Amino acid sequence: MGTHLTNDEDLAYLIGKIVSGGLYAMAALSLLGTLGVDTSPLVAGIGITGFTIGFALKEIATNFLSGMLLVLDKPFHKGQYLKVLSVIANMEGTVESIDARYVRLRNKDGNIVMVPAAMVYSSPILVGKDAMDLKASAGAQQK
User: Fold this and answer.
1) Cβ neighbours of residue 84 under 8 Å, at least 6 residues apart?
2) 55-78 in b/e burial notation, b at 16+ Cβ within 10 A?
3) Alpha helices, DSSP H, located in the chain
């Protein structure tokens, strides 16, 4: 899919969602202002609410920012084989998609594994063309 501005589907989708949400919010505030409603307390309330929700949803915000950085930095691409070396568990598979919260991997059993973007961003990763490529590079490093 993509657009004429970018061929990266993940980035185009992420930017589209952010822009559409912002436009809807601005349109709603503009409409209320046009109808004579004083929007300054509303804007202040939205700011305070956003600040409070930000603390309450720290984990989601961390995943969102990590996902955005992964989409922008592109340390790996769709179709590449990824192994996440986490303290909790090692997860590996072919990259299906990268979005704001998760990196979706298809494991060797054909199942989709949704790895939180923050875990991928903060953990060491191995990237290769396929599982055999990673095993070959690991074997070469041990020699």
Assistant:
1) 90, 91, 92, 115, 119, 120, 123, 125
2) eeeeeeebbbebbbebbeeeebee
3) 9-34, 40-56, 58-73, 117-122, 131-142
In this predicted structure, what is the pLDDT of residue 31? 93
What is residue 62's predicted lDDT score, i.e. its pLDDT? 87
106 CB neighbour count, 10 Å cutoff: 15
Q: Tokens at residue 71, please? A: 């989409």
Q: What is the mean pLDDT of each run of 10 residues along the chain (143 residues)?
A: 61 85 89 90 86 84 87 89 85 90 92 92 87 64 51
pLDDT of residue 104: 94
pTM over 0.85: no
Contact 86, 136 (CB under 8 A): no
| SS3 state at 137 | helix
Radius of gyration of the chain (CA): 20
Report d(CA 141, CA 70) in Å as an integer.
26
Q: Rounded to whole angstroms, how far apart are CA atoms 53 and 61?
A: 10
